[in-house]
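re: ur question from yesterday

yeah so i grabbed the chain u mentioned. its 243 aa long if i counted rite. heres the sequnce exactly as i have it in my notes:
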Amino acid sequence: MPNLIKKKDEATRTISDAYDYIKYPWIVIMGTALSQGIEAFYKCLISFRQPHGFITISHSLIALVIFLATFFRIYLGDSKYFTLSQNLALDAQSTGNRKVFNRIFSRKRRTFDTFFLFLMAVSFVFLALSITRPHAFTLAYLALLLTNVIWLRMISNESHKDEEDVSKHLKVWIMNNFLHFVLILAAFLFSYGSSASFVGYVIFLLMATYIVFDFYFTSSFYFPDADDFLQVDPETPKPRFPI
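ran it thru and got these structure tokens back, copy pasting raw so excuse formatting
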């Protein structure tokens, strides 16, 4: 019996370590991207020059807001994905559910997750370094969306009913990422054949709608309601609290 408990503890530690090896370097790269983005805007701010300084500052400020909002959305979502995957693997291991465990903790899945999560983190570094350069910023944003689409599509092939919290939002994420990738790419290509300055603002607007749509349609994933954490009999009346 003690040997069995020891083996289970070792297995639990091995599973947790496997996810930590992915998560902690990912956090470092994301933190680097965040600091680089703020630093890039600060350098732009202190080097303010007329007559085009205001336009540069305004573009950079909008890019910084887009960067921070996208960073928050991706960081929040991917952090929860790490936690859900780890918890599912640990639950499957503790209950002896080999089918679920082999799918969640498969080498193929962990390889895909590692590759695409780090690719997105690196995309954020390039995004941060391009805050003062609208064209480069757009290209980095397109790379981020495309990477996200491919990764989400692969997750959709692996997802099952035991990953309901992820799978029920996958279709919305894939459609939102792909739709805005196409729209931003079309606006970006149009900007090369047009001298109109408004195209840059259209691209920023599309980036903003991407973030708004994401939070609006999948807010329950990022900010679950308190009732989602309770196993309550639907026939049980809800408690009444004084106002």
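noticed a couple things. The radius of gyration is 22 Å. also The helical segments are 2-46, 53-95, 98-104, 107-129, 134-158, 164-192, 198-217, 219-222.
anyway ttyl
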